[in-house]
Amino acid sequence: MLAYTIRRILQSLLVLLVVGLVAFSMFRFVGDPIDNLLGQERTDADIERLREVLGLNDPFIVQYGNYLIGAFQGNLGISYRQGRPVAEILLERAPATLELAFVSGIIAVVLGIALGVYTAIRRDGILANVIMSASLIGVSLPTFLIGILLIYFFSVYLDLLPSFGRGQVVRIGGWSTGFLTSSGLKALILPSITLALFQMTLIMRLVRAEMLEVLRQDYIRFARARGLNERAVNFRHALKNTLVPVVTIIGMQFGSIIAFAIITETVFQWPGLGLLFINAIQFVDIPVMAAYLMMISVMFVFINLIVDMLYFAIDPRLRVDRSGAH
Q1: Residue of 234, 203, 190 lying closest to 115 (CA atoms)
Q2: Does 24 reside within a domain?
Q3: Fewer CB within 10 Å, N- or C-terminus of the chain?
Q4: pLDDT in tens, 238-259
Q5: What is the domain-level CATH number for residue 178?
Q6: 189 pLDDT band (50/70/90 cuts)?
């Protein structure tokens, strides 16, 4: 177990270095930040002086190396647009994105597993077929269109929920939360549903497919032959084995929710990290873009590492294979 963990950590560090290198090199083609930092009255001397201050005249590998050294020290640079430390900006925006991702993840996992199990057990029922047909909406429609439809129906037509913003928030130390205010909770509903819908349908369909496969296994027939009732067979035996391969997908979906919150945050003008990244692209704010992509990469790699550890712990076949290999 220890050797496996060390090997996965080293692989994760290598992935982070490669992702950072690719992302940092892409920013060279986004545009020149000098165009946004200096006004029309700029001179060639002003341009050269600012490029020297920002380190833009250094070779690419030197810029990347300096960025990595600063990142390991907690220094992610200064935002070209706001003139403030990038780490400080990210910490301000992170609570909004993390709360949205947390609520969306809970919705996706709870409803996805529940509906997946129901549609597998009642696969010939009318309601199960209706649910499976309706799930095509979550898979087929793009996220921004789902968000716009929800805004039109619940905000414009019914005037029940806010269409943009985070509502009123309460600061607890350095954390701002909308969980403690009614307007904050209302503001969470539409964007969290929008963000969760695709992930929920994906989990539901995966759970249903795995559950149907498990229910065909010989040990399920043997459990029924022993006289166990359907509830015990479905939930004590079938569901437990169904969730083993689903754990990996669920873990990665949490990373996807945070990474793909960009579209949802743009539609609902949610003041989180995704909207910050979009604004950074418009202003060629390279330090913010680099820090955001590195943060998302770290999050994906960390979640993937945790999922691998959980998978190794809950699936005895992996432990048997590893011990047999040695």
Answers
A1: 203
A2: no
A3: C
A4: 777 777 777 777 777 777 788 7
A5: 1.10.3720.10
A6: very high
